[in-house]
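Subject: Predicted fold for CRP/FNR family transcriptional regulator, 234 residues

User T.R. writes:
Posting the sequence so we have a shared reference for the thread.
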Amino acid sequence: MRETEGCAFPNRNKPATLQCELTGFAAIDGEVWREALSVSEVISCPAGTKLVECGSSADKFVIVLQGVVKVYEACENGREISLYRVCSGQVCVLTLTRLLLRSNQCAQAVAEQDVRLLAMPPEYFERLLAESKGFRSYLMTSMAHCITDVVQLTAQVSFRHLDLRLVQLIRKLSTQEPDSRIRCTHQTIANELGTTREVVSRLLKELERSGHIKLSRGSIQVLDSEKLEDLCLG
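User M.O. replies:
I've generated the structure tokens; pasting them so everyone works from the same file.
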């Protein structure tokens, strides 16, 4: 994960009290871990900040302390598909694989919410990998979550029709809102599903005509969650 032109990291500070904040890392202990934290940085980024560009190299090992980072692929024609998300307490697997393989894979990452990141120098990452059983266990758990997400995405893309994937996404997003109103654009949904805005708009219109949702500018209102659930099961 690196700083790119036009990508500002406005707030950096040394994690003097970071050990107290990392309550989920109690299994990782030892002098190397404490030393690694003392030389790491905490980076705060607002939502929308591009964190990893396609083809960029990774010069730090990154853990998400707060917020959500979306990792996605983008094609030359502008289409995108979301691969997985990195949440609080998880490692950025994209930067991890770049450090381990020393390769520049063509995936990108963006802060989906305001995020705080722990950026660790690679030499301390390598020492922890060699000397800390707790650190290795943490990495394996984070990678397992990521692999599960990607396997589920592959299964959805391979075996489920786009209209069903769209309904399932709407159902999922609506349950996260108290008024069942999803506030996002058709392009955002298209990027999530790896298709075009025109296709998403057509499918949403069909759902509106059937009485499942109501479309407004910049939002989608779920009218009948039970019928939507039936479509998901069907």
